[in-house]
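Reviewer comment 2.1 asked that we show a complete input and output for one of the modelled complexes. We chose the S-adenosylmethionine case, as it is the one discussed in the main text.
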Amino acid sequence: MPSFFASTAKGLVEALEIELKNLGFEKTEKVAGGVFFETNWEGCYRANLQSRLATRILKPILDFNAYQGDELYYNLMKHDFTKYIHPNQTIKVEASLTDCSIRDQRFLAMRTKDAIVDQFREKFDVRPDVNTFNPDLKIYIRAHRDQYSVAIDTSGESLFMRGYRKEAGDAPMKENLAAGLLMLAEWDQKSPVVDPTCGSGTILIEAAMMAMKIAPGSSRRQFGFERLIGFQQEAWDRVLDEAASQEIAELPFKFYGYDIDRPVLRMAKENAKRAGVDHVVEFNFESVATLTPPVEKGLLVANPPYGARLGDEENLRDVYRDIGFTLKHRFKGWDAWILSGNKDLILDMKLKSTRKHFVFNGPIECRFLKYSMF
Ligand SMILES: C[S@@+](CC[C@H](N)C(=O)[O-])C[C@H]1O[C@@H](n2cnc3c(N)ncnc32)[C@H](O)[C@@H]1O
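Response of the prediction step:
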């Protein structure tokens, strides 16, 4: 059984595998939804702290076949869950199944919880409580065609919750998606990035953190693995020290964000400050209709509104026409990548894309398109 699994958003699995390899995890295997990788607990701590694309890191612990509730229960009883937490700590079971003899997801979650708490009761005469909001141990049980896999969570809160974004506009993107877009765009991490519709600044803050080699998890309060029995404080200190020693304080270039929403720009500035990158990111009030390049050369990455969540489609057609016009006439020599969940609006840009990725922004399938402005 592979030692760890990194999950991510649909569309980012290949980029996540490359990231894990760059972080030094050599044995990897891509599957739908994420990447298995081999490492020890110290490596798991490092993946949690350093992966910009993972949503969470799980430790697979058990695989079995079961066709009815008792079989499920006895298979779970074969694994010692008392080695992960003390009986006075709390648990939560996340269950999902497709195409199984056991049909009820709630029954699956309940039987799994029973098997776990019964082990504690037998051994300690006390059982862990269930806490659905902030459990000490989260157990994932997934089943497909009567094949069950069980994993424990090592992350706690999802890893895209870096800790710097306290405020955002109406349609912010998750931080790991922003980092993933920069990887898909093959940004070299050595040149300016411009976001003409920056909202709360996620893409630029992630870009600045990448360039300054600030670990994405460095401002988080806690990770799930810190609450597990056997947590190795010395190994975690080593991982934190290694990450801190890689940080670069100053950069010879900057990041530029623009928006027509002043309150959202103020939020972006506060977010950048909390992330420790405000000295390298400039946010300014400017419409994409009148935008000119702030520097001679760089990469433009944009997530304009696309109707599903922000604004109304008719009004947005003008925004896309403006983006197309501005790119064509003022950003000659630049590469631009646009993320949009609305393919009709993309056509309004009147530009021909040269590359395309499909990614999911939450539940919305989006195109991430490259335009080379010759
Ligand atoms: C989908 S949101 C961007 C979200 C951002 N990626 C984030 O994570 O917070 C789109 C943004 O485009 C801005 N916008 C709309 N029309 C604009 C225009 N003509 N010029 C510049 N920005 C515009 C909106 O104010 C909004 O903040």
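Residues 105-124 form the longest helix (20 residues). We note this here for comparison with the apo prediction described in Section 3.2.
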